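User: quick one, sequence for these C-alpha coordinates?
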Protein backbone atom coordinates (compact mmCIF):
# COMPACT_ATOMS: atom_id res chain seq x y z
CA UNK A 1 0.00 0.00 0.00
CA UNK A 2 0.90 3.64 -0.22
CA UNK A 3 2.22 5.11 2.99
CA UNK A 4 -0.36 7.28 4.75
CA UNK A 5 0.82 9.55 7.55
CA UNK A 6 -0.78 12.20 9.75
CA UNK A 7 0.90 15.49 10.47
CA UNK A 8 0.88 17.26 13.84
CA UNK A 9 -2.39 19.07 13.09
CA UNK A 10 -4.25 15.75 13.55
CA UNK A 11 -2.77 15.03 16.99
CA UNK A 12 -5.68 14.46 19.32
CA UNK A 13 -8.22 14.99 16.51
CA UNK A 14 -10.82 12.23 16.32
CA UNK A 15 -11.46 11.88 12.59
CA UNK A 16 -11.32 8.30 11.27
CA UNK A 17 -10.17 7.85 7.68
CA UNK A 18 -10.39 4.75 5.54
CA UNK A 19 -8.55 3.71 2.40
CA UNK A 20 -9.26 0.94 -0.08
CA UNK A 21 -6.55 0.37 -2.68
CA UNK A 22 -7.47 -1.65 -5.77
CA UNK A 23 -5.40 -3.00 -8.62
CA UNK A 24 -7.91 -3.73 -11.37
CA UNK A 25 -7.30 -6.18 -14.19
CA UNK A 26 -7.98 -5.01 -17.74
CA UNK A 27 -11.67 -4.37 -18.57
CA UNK A 28 -12.00 -7.55 -20.62
CA UNK A 29 -12.32 -9.48 -17.37
CA UNK A 30 -14.71 -7.08 -15.64
CA UNK A 31 -18.26 -8.18 -14.85
CA UNK A 32 -19.94 -4.89 -15.68
CA UNK A 33 -23.39 -6.35 -16.25
CA UNK A 34 -23.38 -7.99 -12.84
CA UNK A 35 -22.09 -4.84 -11.15
CA UNK A 36 -24.72 -2.56 -12.67
CA UNK A 37 -27.45 -5.09 -11.92
CA UNK A 38 -26.29 -5.06 -8.30
CA UNK A 39 -26.29 -1.25 -8.32
CA UNK A 40 -29.84 -1.14 -9.64
CA UNK A 41 -30.99 -3.58 -6.96
CA UNK A 42 -29.18 -1.69 -4.18
CA UNK A 43 -30.63 1.66 -5.23
CA UNK A 44 -34.14 0.23 -5.49
CA UNK A 45 -33.86 -1.07 -1.93
CA UNK A 46 -32.60 2.29 -0.67
CA UNK A 47 -35.37 4.14 -2.49
CA UNK A 48 -38.00 1.92 -0.89
CA UNK A 49 -36.45 2.36 2.55
CA UNK A 50 -36.69 6.15 2.37
CA UNK A 51 -40.18 6.58 0.93
CA UNK A 52 -41.68 9.05 1.43
CA UNK A 53 -38.48 11.09 1.18
CA UNK A 54 -37.89 14.22 3.23
CA UNK A 55 -34.38 15.71 3.27
CA UNK A 56 -34.32 16.75 6.91
CA UNK A 57 -35.54 13.36 8.11
CA UNK A 58 -32.90 11.49 6.11
CA UNK A 59 -29.91 13.82 6.38
CA UNK A 60 -30.69 16.28 9.18
CA UNK A 61 -28.67 14.35 11.76
CA UNK A 62 -26.11 13.00 9.30
CA UNK A 63 -22.63 13.91 10.64
CA UNK A 64 -21.34 14.74 7.16
CA UNK A 65 -24.32 17.03 6.54
CA UNK A 66 -23.58 18.89 9.77
CA UNK A 67 -19.84 18.99 9.03
CA UNK A 68 -20.36 20.56 5.60
CA UNK A 69 -22.90 22.99 7.02
CA UNK A 70 -20.16 24.47 9.23
CA UNK A 71 -18.43 25.52 6.01
CA UNK A 72 -21.70 26.83 4.55
CA UNK A 73 -21.71 23.97 2.05
CA UNK A 74 -24.26 21.31 1.16
CA UNK A 75 -23.06 17.75 1.67
CA UNK A 76 -22.71 16.61 -1.99
CA UNK A 77 -24.11 13.15 -1.31
CA UNK A 78 -27.46 14.77 -0.51
CA UNK A 79 -27.78 16.12 -4.04
CA UNK A 80 -26.48 12.88 -5.57
CA UNK A 81 -28.97 10.86 -3.51
CA UNK A 82 -31.91 13.02 -4.53
CA UNK A 83 -30.99 12.78 -8.20
CA UNK A 84 -29.79 9.19 -8.49
CA UNK A 85 -32.08 7.50 -5.99
CA UNK A 86 -35.19 9.58 -5.37
CA UNK A 87 -35.57 10.85 -8.94
CA UNK A 88 -34.30 7.56 -10.38
CA UNK A 89 -31.38 8.86 -12.46
CA UNK A 90 -29.13 6.03 -11.26
CA UNK A 91 -25.35 6.06 -11.25
CA UNK A 92 -23.45 7.61 -14.19
CA UNK A 93 -22.43 4.37 -15.93
CA UNK A 94 -19.48 5.89 -17.79
CA UNK A 95 -16.63 4.44 -15.74
CA UNK A 96 -17.19 1.47 -13.41
CA UNK A 97 -14.02 2.29 -11.45
CA UNK A 98 -15.51 5.59 -10.28
CA UNK A 99 -19.07 4.25 -10.12
CA UNK A 100 -17.97 1.94 -7.28
CA UNK A 101 -17.51 4.73 -4.69
CA UNK A 102 -20.50 6.60 -6.11
CA UNK A 103 -22.67 3.59 -5.34
CA UNK A 104 -21.14 3.42 -1.87
CA UNK A 105 -22.07 7.05 -1.21
CA UNK A 106 -25.66 6.50 -2.28
CA UNK A 107 -26.19 3.40 -0.18
CA UNK A 108 -24.26 4.35 2.97
CA UNK A 109 -24.28 8.19 2.94
CA UNK A 110 -20.54 8.31 3.61
CA UNK A 111 -18.18 10.42 1.50
CA UNK A 112 -15.68 8.77 -0.81
CA UNK A 113 -13.65 9.43 -3.98
CA UNK A 114 -11.10 7.95 -6.38
CA UNK A 115 -7.42 8.73 -6.97
CA UNK A 116 -4.97 7.20 -9.43
CA UNK A 117 -2.04 5.68 -7.53
CA UNK A 118 0.24 6.01 -10.55
CA UNK A 119 0.02 9.81 -10.24
CA UNK A 120 0.79 9.93 -6.52
CA UNK A 121 4.26 11.23 -5.70
CA UNK A 122 5.72 9.69 -2.54
CA UNK A 123 3.69 9.30 0.64
CA UNK A 124 0.20 10.66 1.34
CA UNK A 125 0.11 13.02 4.31
CA UNK A 126 -3.21 13.73 6.02
CA UNK A 127 -3.68 17.05 7.77
CA UNK A 128 -6.11 19.71 8.93
CA UNK A 129 -5.84 22.86 6.86
CA UNK A 130 -5.33 26.18 8.63
CA UNK A 131 -5.78 28.44 5.60
CA UNK A 132 -7.25 28.77 2.10
CA UNK A 133 -4.57 27.04 0.04
CA UNK A 134 -5.44 26.87 -3.67
CA UNK A 135 -5.02 23.86 -5.94
CA UNK A 136 -6.26 22.84 -9.41
CA UNK A 137 -9.47 20.84 -9.13
CA UNK A 138 -10.50 17.78 -11.10
CA UNK A 139 -13.08 19.62 -13.21
CA UNK A 140 -10.69 22.33 -14.36
CA UNK A 141 -11.59 24.86 -11.70
CA UNK A 142 -9.27 26.29 -9.09
CA UNK A 143 -10.26 24.98 -5.66
CA UNK A 144 -9.08 25.85 -2.20
CA UNK A 145 -8.92 24.30 1.24
CA UNK A 146 -10.72 25.77 4.23
CA UNK A 147 -9.51 26.36 7.78
CA UNK A 148 -10.53 23.23 9.67
CA UNK A 149 -10.83 21.20 6.46
CA UNK A 150 -9.57 17.58 6.36
CA UNK A 151 -7.00 17.39 3.53
CA UNK A 152 -4.18 15.35 2.05
CA UNK A 153 -1.03 16.11 0.08
CA UNK A 154 1.75 14.16 -1.54
CA UNK A 155 5.23 15.22 -2.63
CA UNK A 156 3.83 17.47 -5.34
CA UNK A 157 0.99 19.21 -3.53
CA UNK A 158 -2.63 18.95 -2.35
CA UNK A 159 -4.53 15.93 -3.65
CA UNK A 160 -7.85 16.42 -1.89
CA UNK A 161 -9.91 18.57 0.39
CA UNK A 162 -12.87 16.90 2.07
CA UNK A 163 -14.91 20.04 1.49
CA UNK A 164 -13.67 21.11 -1.96
CA UNK A 165 -12.93 17.75 -3.60
CA UNK A 166 -10.12 16.11 -5.58
CA UNK A 167 -7.26 17.63 -7.52
CA UNK A 168 -6.80 17.31 -11.27
CA UNK A 169 -3.41 15.52 -11.15
CA UNK A 170 -4.30 12.40 -9.16
CA UNK A 171 -8.05 12.11 -9.80
CA UNK A 172 -9.16 8.96 -11.60
CA UNK A 173 -9.17 8.77 -15.39
CA UNK A 174 -10.95 6.32 -17.71
CA UNK A 175 -7.67 4.44 -18.07
CA UNK A 176 -6.92 4.28 -14.31
CA UNK A 177 -6.32 0.72 -13.12
CA UNK A 178 -4.46 1.23 -9.82
CA UNK A 179 -6.57 3.44 -7.59
CA UNK A 180 -7.19 4.27 -3.99
CA UNK A 181 -10.60 5.11 -2.65
CA UNK A 182 -10.54 7.46 0.35
CA UNK A 183 -13.44 7.05 2.76
CA UNK A 184 -13.73 10.25 4.72
CA UNK A 185 -14.76 10.61 8.32
CA UNK A 186 -15.95 13.57 10.35
CA UNK A 187 -15.06 14.65 13.90
CA UNK A 188 -16.27 12.03 16.36
CA UNK A 189 -17.58 9.61 13.73
CA UNK A 190 -17.33 6.03 15.05
CA UNK A 191 -14.63 4.07 13.18
CA UNK A 192 -17.19 1.30 12.71
CA UNK A 193 -18.97 3.49 10.14
CA UNK A 194 -15.78 3.61 8.07
CA UNK A 195 -15.19 -0.11 8.55
CA UNK A 196 -18.69 -0.98 7.29
CA UNK A 197 -18.18 1.30 4.30
CA UNK A 198 -14.90 -0.45 3.51
CA UNK A 199 -16.67 -3.82 3.61
CA UNK A 200 -19.34 -2.57 1.21
CA UNK A 201 -16.81 -1.05 -1.16
CA UNK A 202 -14.74 -4.23 -1.20
CA UNK A 203 -17.92 -6.17 -2.02
CA UNK A 204 -18.76 -3.86 -4.93
CA UNK A 205 -15.24 -4.16 -6.33
CA UNK A 206 -15.42 -7.95 -5.97
CA UNK A 207 -18.59 -8.08 -8.06
CA UNK A 208 -17.16 -5.79 -10.75
CA UNK A 209 -13.72 -7.36 -10.93
CA UNK A 210 -13.33 -10.68 -9.07
CA UNK A 211 -9.65 -10.79 -10.04
CA UNK A 212 -8.86 -7.36 -8.56
CA UNK A 213 -6.30 -7.13 -5.77
CA UNK A 214 -7.74 -5.23 -2.80
CA UNK A 215 -6.07 -3.81 0.29
CA UNK A 216 -7.68 -1.63 2.93
CA UNK A 217 -6.97 0.14 6.19
CA UNK A 218 -8.45 2.58 8.70
CA UNK A 219 -6.33 5.40 10.07
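Assistant:
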Amino acid sequence: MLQYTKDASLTGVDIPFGVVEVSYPEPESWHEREFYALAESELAAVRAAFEPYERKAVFGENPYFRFFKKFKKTFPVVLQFESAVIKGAGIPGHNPVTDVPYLLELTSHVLSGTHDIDYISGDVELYISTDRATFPGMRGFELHTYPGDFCARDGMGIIFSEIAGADDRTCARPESRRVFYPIFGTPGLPPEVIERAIDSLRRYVGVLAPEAVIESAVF
